[in-house]
Amino acid sequence: MPSVLVPLAQGCEELEAVTIIDLLRRAGLDVVTAGLDNRPVTASRGTLLIADTRLEDVVERTFDMIVLPGGLPGADHLAEDPRIVALLRSQHAAGRFSAAICAAPKVLACAGLLDGRSATVYPGAVDPAAYPKVEFTDAAVVVDGTIVTSRGPGTAMDFALQLIELLLGRESRDQVERGLVRTL
């Protein structure tokens, strides 16, 4: 079963984090949440999240995908953590998936992983002029090679379903989506 790392930074967007974790686990993926520090994670709206482990305990492990929840200041904490940047660059060099939602695509941009690609990001979270090699769009979800980005909390379900499809195929995505009783 494919494995997914979801790093949880203090101040992450809880709706995104929980939606991603929940839907990927519904699909049967091996999801590991890892805190950047040893404390419970206080999300952007005050929700307390408990990570499965600490990032330092899984930093040497290989994952099929790394998914970054957004939110502020969570995305800033991810961008400032050299372990996260190194993991993302290693993931990219190995041709494995990296994904980010809301303000977190700026972590991918800071790491240089969006150069020459299309991406989406929460409005105002990134100054497009600072990244002239990136084509920013207003799409809900953008897949460009092994990089997946999404717009914000309102697109979290679509984002997570797209990640399921990339890792397990359309049938698995459809099965999870049916169980959610979403109306289209």
From TrEMBL:
Q: Which residues form the signal peptide?
A: none
Please tell me whether the keyword Repeat is annotated for this protein. Answer: yes
* Coiled-coil stretches: none
Cellular-component GO terms for this entry: cytoplasm
Please list every transmembrane segment annotated in the UniProt record, as residue ranges: none
Domain DJ-1/PfpI stretches: 3-165
Keywords in UniProt for this one?
Answer: Repeat
Record keyword Repeat present: yes
CDD domains per record: GATase1_DJ-1 (cd03135)
Its domain of life reads: Bacteria
Q: Which SUPFAM superfamilies match?
A: Class I glutamine amidotransferase-like
> Know the name of this protein?
4-methyl-5(B-hydroxyethyl)-thiazole monophosphate biosynthesis
Could you read off the lineage of the organism from its UniProt record?
Bacteria, Pseudomonadati, Pseudomonadota, Gammaproteobacteria, Chromatiales
